[in-house]
């Protein structure tokens, strides 16, 4: 076989390999996007919105989160830890009526501490903690983001969120709290992802699970 024929065959094989690689990458693109969309749910849409509709950029960000935090294993809480967190959350809810700003700030601190206790990055690194939570609790992480934002804004005595906005943030944040505080096995092994306010401690609804923030008219609420 002549040198020219060998070179031609090498060129043809290289071209075939290149085309196959391009086709493989193209086929994996939509598949990865669908996989991330299923995993992150509403968090996927928020990422796309933050990137001004650029789905590819959003998918790169979400894929990086999975690479950094996907192997994280959540540490179970000891029964005494769980009871303490539940008692603090119930107290924050009860405090809301008279001191909504302080209650929201406590809810923000409590979620940070609870996530840290479960093995997520320390609450002192909020963005990293939030990213890790979004990988494992994507459907409820927005509640933490919202209560954190409201707590920071409400700390400004010259302005800040209104009482109703703070109340809504507390309600939304409670879903993530319930997911993080519940035992790994509860209610006979049934797990609904915390989307319907499932009970804690083997099906018994604890104060944190059954406690609701006060429903009051705006004129009755005290602005602190």
TrEMBL record:
Biased composition (Basic residues): 215-224
Transmembrane segments: 6-25
Biased composition (Basic and acidic residues): 184-195
Residues covered by region (Disordered): 184-224
Keywords: Membrane, Transmembrane, Transmembrane helix
Domain of life (superkingdom): Bacteria
Protein name as catalogued: Secreted protein
């Amino acid at each position: 076989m002549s040198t020219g024929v060998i070179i031609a065959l090498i060129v043809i094989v290289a071209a075939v390999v290149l085309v196959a690689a391009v086709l493989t990458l193209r086929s994996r693109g939509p598949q990865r996007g669908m996989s991330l969309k299923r995993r992150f749910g509403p968090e996927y849409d928020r990422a796309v919105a933050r990137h001004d509709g650029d789905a590819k950029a959003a998918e790169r960000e979400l894929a990086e989160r999975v690479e950094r935090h996907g192997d994280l294993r959540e540490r179970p809480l000891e029964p005494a830890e769980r009871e303490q967190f539940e008692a603090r959350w119930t107290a924050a809810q009860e405090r809301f009526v008279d001191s909504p700003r302080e209650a929201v700030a406590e809810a923000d601190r409590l979620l940070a501490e609870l996530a840290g206790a479960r093995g997520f990055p320390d609450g002192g690194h909020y963005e990293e903690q939030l990213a890790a939570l979004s990988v494992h609790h994507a459907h409820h992480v927005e509640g933490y983001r919202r209560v954190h934002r409201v707590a920071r804004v409400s700390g400004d005595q010259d302005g800040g969120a209104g009482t109703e906005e703070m109340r809504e943030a507390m309600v939304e944040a409670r879903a993530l709290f319930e997911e993080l505080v519940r035992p790994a096995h509860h209610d006979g092994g049934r797990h609904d992802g915390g989307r319907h306010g499932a009970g804690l401690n083997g099906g018994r609804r604890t104060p944190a699970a059954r406690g609701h923030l006060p429903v009051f008219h705006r004129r009755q609420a005290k602005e602190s």
